[in-house]
Design goal:
With 112 residues, the protein is mostly beta strands. Strands 2, 4, 5, 6, 9, 10 and 11 form a seven-stranded mixed β-sheet that branches. A four-stranded antiparallel β-sheet has the order 1-3-8-7, with no helix packed on it. It starts with a strand and ends with a strand.
């Protein structure tokens, strides 16, 4: 059974940092597309950052380029999202994704 479990969300002040983790079980992340998405209240879910299985490239939404970094630890079967210089508009529920599966989400709130 495939499971994706996110952690690391919380409340942070503008300009602060958080690192989200997504631990996978029942599936190896080595050869998979992997992504982080987010959904703010009243808005559609949007892609934040993704790894492509095809060519190993990474994608970042324009709104997070230069501030967020996606990484993976294949030994731990875990993918991370390092988020720096956080802004109030980054407030959302963040979801980990692999094809056909979603995690349960972790809340990130950026507020003073």
């Amino acid at each position: 059974q495939v499971q994706l479990v996110e952690s690391g969300g919380g409340l942070v002040q503008p300009g602060g940092s958080l690192r989200l983790s997504c631990a996978a079980s029942g599936f190896s992340l080595d050869n998979s597309h992997i992504g982080w998405f987010r959904q703010a209240p009243g808005k559609e879910r949007e892609a934040v950052s993704c790894f492509s299985r095809s060519d190993g490239s990474t994608y970042y939404a324009d709104s997070v380029k230069g501030r967020f970094t996606i990484s993976r630890d294949n030994a731990k079967n875990t993918v991370y999202l390092q988020m720096n210089s956080l802004k109030p508009e980054d407030t959302a529920v963040y979801y980990c994704w692999i094809p056909n599966y979603w995690g349960q989400g972790t809340q990130v709130t950026v507020s003073s």
